[in-house]
Write a structure and sequence with these properties.
Layout lengths: L8 H37 L4 H14 L2 H12 L11 E5 L8 E5 L4 E2 H25 L6 H13 L1 H13 L5 E2 L4
Antiparallel strand pairs: 1-2, 3-4
Helix pairs in contact: 1-5, 1-6, 2-5, 3-4, 4-5, 4-6
Length: 181
């Protein structure tokens, strides 16, 4: 099949290895980042009260399915001038179960390498890096729910981080990419 599409077998094998690294980053990154969150937040606070854990758990159960949607919407909001283009799309595969549902953003038109990196990095920066910065720098620490959302978003950003790596390594500064995210 790869030969039919004009792709060399080595290119397909390289892509498969790349995809496997991204999947491992998502799977193993979540517990590592979650442990880091607990280490940063709980030494100051002590373990949260039982009532706090129950209310946070209920709130998370309701809000957690919205995190992937917020992640993808942040991709769209990274380039607000592209929102109203006729070829900008948010694809949602609703045939899969809720926590395996796939969402993808396609911004309209061509993008430069830097625009693509910005679009890919924005959800990671706002939903993961910013809460960790808050946890490290602020005197009032965020609750465990913010940490779970930050960790979940980190796992969802694994593919974005891999795309950024490839662009930084193989694409020249200012180069225009055909197609888009």
């Amino acid at each position: 099949m790869a030969a039919e599409n004009g792709l060399a077998a080595s290119t397909v094998a390289d892509y498969q290895r790349f995809a496997n690294v991204g999947a491992r980053l998502a799977i193993y990154g979540f517990p590592i980042i979650a442990a880091l969150w607990v280490w940063i937040v709980f030494p100051d606070l002590g373990l949260p009260a039982r009532e706090s854990l129950i209310s946070s758990g209920i709130l998370l159960f309701v809000l957690l399915p919205l995190v992937p949607l917020a992640h993808e919407l942040l991709h769209l909001l990274a380039m607000p001038t592209r929102l109203l283009r006729h070829d900008t799309r948010l694809f949602i595969d609703i045939k899969k179960p809720l926590f395996k549902m796939a969402m993808v953003v396609k911004t309209g038109g061509s993008l430069t390498r830097e625009q693509f990196i910005w679009i890919s990095a924005l959800p990671l920066l706002l939903l993961s890096v910013l809460p960790f910065g808050w946890a490290v720098l602020a005197q009032s620490k965020p609750n465990i729910g913010v940490g779970i959302i930050a960790c979940m978003n980190f796992a969802m950003s694994a593919g974005d981080m891999m795309q950024i790596y490839v662009l930084l390594r193989y694409v020249k500064f200012g180069e225009v990419l055909s197609g888009s995210k």
